[in-house]
Amino acid sequence: MTTTMTKSLLPEAMGRFLGCETPKAWIEQALTHQEILLIDHAQCEKKAASTAMSLMYRHVDRPLLLIKMSQLAREELLHFEQVVTLMQRRGVAYRHLSASRYAEGLRRQVSDKDPQRLVDILIVGALIEARSCERFARLIPHLDAELAKFYRSLVKSEGRHYEDYLMLARRYAEDDGVPEVEERIVFFTECERRLICTPDPHFRFHSGLPEAA
Ligand SMILES: [Fe+2]
Ligand SMILES: [Fe+2]
Questions:
Q1: Is 21 strand, coil or helix?
Q2: According to the CATH classification, is domain 23-210 in 1.10.287.3510?
Q3: InterPro entries, from UniProt (predicted)?
Q4: Which residues contact 40 (CB under 8 A, 6 or more apart)?
Q5: Residues surrounding ion ligand 2 at CB below 5 Å
Q6: Which of 37, 111, 183, 208 is the most buried (most CB within 10 A)?
Q7: What are the pLDDT digits (tens) for 35-76?
């Protein structure tokens, strides 16, 4: 609704971190495609838990990562249960949806060699969490009371996930001597901005500018 309202919902650091705001046309599209929004949201929560668990399998020698990712995976699965419950209450059937281009578009830029690979995956994680948080915050003023209340709780937890991913990226870049992490963050932020602000034919939770816009 109003920019002030969105800003008060969104942690300030996150607004600065992202390369652009979600286009208004996406918000309008989301409001007219709430079923797809919910189904794809459920998919995203499940995928977020699974990404965190993959990191736990791959990096057993990093206790801080293990603890943070284990907490994160549990929270994402709880979010998944909450979305599925809400869908059931609203008579929205869970069906398969193709993935949006977003996560794959970011992952394509990830290095295939550790430790750069780990740092890249953590930066991408921070961006996905930050964008999810921003979209929840932007949608809240337009939603019914039940969905708005749920999304308000998600703004808080996805905001924490963004902070954890970014902290881990900087920490392991320093520990493992990965150079120029801030430049790498800027690089991925720009990739993310393009995915959000260029035309995208398929509406999803993380899709870009609606094609007709
Ligand atoms: Fe989540
Ligand atoms: Fe999250």
A1: coil
A2: no
A3: Ferritin-like, Ferritin-like_SF, tRNA-Hydrxlase_MiaE
A4: 97, 100, 204, 205
A5: 48, 129, 158, 161
A6: 208
A7: 999 999 999 999 999 999 999 999 999 999 999 999 999 999
